[in-house]
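Self-study notes.
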Amino acid sequence: MPTDEAERKAAMDAWTGWYDKLGSAVIDGGNPVGMSRTVLPGGVVENNGGSNPTAGYTIVEAKDIDDAVAKARDCPILMNPAFSVEVAPIIEMM
């Protein structure tokens, strides 16, 4: 997380620019999430959030997974080399 005001503004401007570029493809702009815990088989709980802890989410409309990947490539979270973006389709069950 940026610590000084100029860095925070630059980060927020990057996010705003990304959402503006995505336009109506943004279904849910999402939110950051807090520290997670991983529940393993047998009910064992690890407090590490797993091997790739979730930092937040955004839901976008895409024609296919390749289109979603193309949209994700510009995600501002990728300015930090410690983060990645996971892309997966949402499967309607009902």
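Second protein, same conventions, sequence then structure:
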Amino acid sequence: MAEDGWLFDAFQLAEVSQGRPLSTLAFALLRRMHLIAHFQLSEARLARFLCAIEDGYPSNPYHCRTHAADVLRTVHCMMTRGKVGKMLGGDQRVDLLAVYLSALIHDFEHKGVNNQYLITTGDELALRYNDHSPMENHHIAAAFQLMLHDETNFFTNTNSKVREVIRRYVIELVLATDMKQAGSLPTPPPLANMGNKGQGVMDDDLRLLTLQMVMKVSDLGHLAHAKDVHRRWVQLLEEELFRQGDLEVAAGLPVSPLMDRTKAGVTRSQAGFFSLVCLPQLQAFTTVFSGCQPMLDQARENNQMWLEEARLQGEASPAPGLSGSPSRRYGPVVLPPMLSKADDGEEAATAPVTPAVVERAEGEEAGAAEGQRK
């Protein structure tokens, strides 16, 4: 794990957290950034909510709880180490909570297929949302429905105006992850003119657009990870796409591009994706937010890796599926910095958010409430 925190391996976190990477990371970040205390979030209800969200992520090869944890970590780095939050000005805590929650739920109950498949097959989600971003709309609605239950509504003590702002932001941020609907979010002229001065406070529209850009970049954050971690994510994505292709074959449908298991998959199209989508988007973003330059630098290294492989193997090489464990061995497990030490120097909570953690939080809250009554 790199000392600067940009290079992150969510697979290692999944191992050390006993399969609870998302709830463990989310709880640690919310505590470390003092958001639980500031917004008076119920720790017990929050812990139950985080566990429920994590349990709602199916075991898809790519769109799984580990991916959500990876996106959450990337969002955190962009907002803090990348200084995006500082440039936004205003109340950064609202922005942080909104973008953390968006990353947390952005693929909740993902079906392992894309929106077009849902629309083509007449899936209930496509019918419910009139073919408009059915998966993203479901992620949002299902997550907020969890908050309707008393045991998982951690916002009970939070100001209603703040809750309204956060809900509006979460809706817009998660919807922005639908690449077909939103496309690549351009850097707006007013934002581009700011350069890196970071003076004043952005108006609400620019603020929201910036957070959408953060979310979109983070959703593809593995493109800027260490080569071995990035390659593993691409293999997982390829397998998930092949599984959709298998479903299309079984249903007698035309097989979507890059989803035919008998042909080259996404592992043979990465160089083009970097050139057409990834690098231009990161270049535009880092022009304004230079603190995120390490992401662009690593993405360029990964692009060179794919270009070199394409040169050596040629386009005629068969696309590898996901079989067995990754060829490279991973190094020793190292916890992410935010899970190693708390801000006050004390040990941060690194244990998974288990029922025992929930019970302890409930006991602490009950004791505090009893103390207030005395």
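Instructor comment on the second fold: The domain at 10-320 is CATH 1.10.1300.10 (Catalytic domain of cyclic nucleotide phosphodiesterase 4b2b).
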